């Protein structure tokens, strides 16, 4: 290598040098560059090559990466093949450089990011490179030597500097077209239930199992004065560090007047917070008052409406 310098190519600062030798790891020889610039395919990916124990590809946008609103420049990136299969939190730090063959000088121009040489690749960052490697005008100008008789060579060298396991993380996903699930529970012989918790049959909402928990004589600060109602995950241990965001309501039906006494909430459920509800859902005085219709023939109807909107998965 010789002629180390700091130069601006395509509005980006590069550390540049010239090399008599071709790139160690990969060279992409394009025999008809004009065909690439005129085809409908904006992106071209090279074949795979190996460097530092990993597989890579060169990704070329001959007319600029339109996803980044790049025009009149060539965009070039390094892609890690199989990055999605890396262990969660695993990072690979890479020092890479791109090569452009100057056919007039018979040498390669070597370009490297002047600001930060090492780039980090991981499961969520498969690409790294330059949106504006060089202007299309400069690249195709025969006097610069990069494209001669419609032929050019673009190459890469890739050196893995270090590998490490990063911290934990989580992924949040929203459920599109979430469906509301309704479950009706007929609770009989209410006066004979005592003080212990009663549970409904499990039901499914948002691909998870739920149940209603009822405390006939109350729980916590509702004990002795109210009926307490909760929505609860039936299998919280299966979340394994994940969380579920649910919009729900719990209701007691007025059997005489077709009315309902209800409360609503939006809650993140998890292994450590598997239930949510109201210790003072309805007072025992109101529940037992003749003519209210909440308790008829020692029976009440409890309903749950549950809509799961999102899931957080541990990475």
From TrEMBL:
UniProt lineage: Eukaryota, Viridiplantae, Streptophyta, Embryophyta, Tracheophyta
Name of the protein described by the UniProt record: MATH domain-containing protein
Domain MATH, chain residue ranges per copy: 23-158, 180-306
Record organism: Pyrus ussuriensis x Pyrus communis
Pfam families: MATH_2 (PF22486)
Superkingdom in the source lineage: Eukaryota
SUPFAM superfamilies per record: TRAF domain-like
Alphabetical list of InterPro entries matching this protein: MATH/TRAF_dom, TRAF-like
